[in-house]
Q: What sequence folds into this?
């Protein structure tokens, strides 16, 4: 299961770093998508930071569930935006990424009831 988790997290990392970087860089397609959603370009930046940050968090020991929940929540928002605003057929990648996030949560479910430890430097 360890290698399966690593593979899923690597897939999520590639997808979310790519998508988040495109949002942060202001790729035309991303700007147009957030214009169509109608919440403003500030939300594109917030989403990009969450995606890149969540992808990094996937590799922090003991934080995989938190990261997958964050990324999964963005995919719920993406699916809702596609269904209600952008067109239902375009939401399939978000559904797939959300399902992969769910699998990561399941694989690391032992983290759910643990009390987070403070980092000491």
A:
């Amino acid at each position: 299961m360890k290698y399966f988790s690593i593979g899923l997290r690597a897939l999520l990392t590639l997808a979310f770093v790519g998508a988040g970087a495109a949002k942060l860089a202001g790729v035309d397609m991303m700007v147009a998508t957030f214009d169509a959603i109608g919440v403003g370009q500030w939300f594109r930046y917030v989403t990009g930071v969450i995606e890149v940050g969540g992808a990094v968090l996937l590799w922090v020991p003991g934080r995989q569930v938190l990261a997958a929940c964050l990324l999964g929540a963005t995919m719920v928002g993406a699916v809702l935006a596609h269904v209600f605003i952008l067109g239902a057929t375009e939401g399939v990648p978000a559904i797939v990424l959300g399902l992969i996030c769910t699998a990561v949560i399941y694989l690391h479910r032992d983290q759910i009831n643990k009390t987070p430890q403070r980092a000491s430097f």
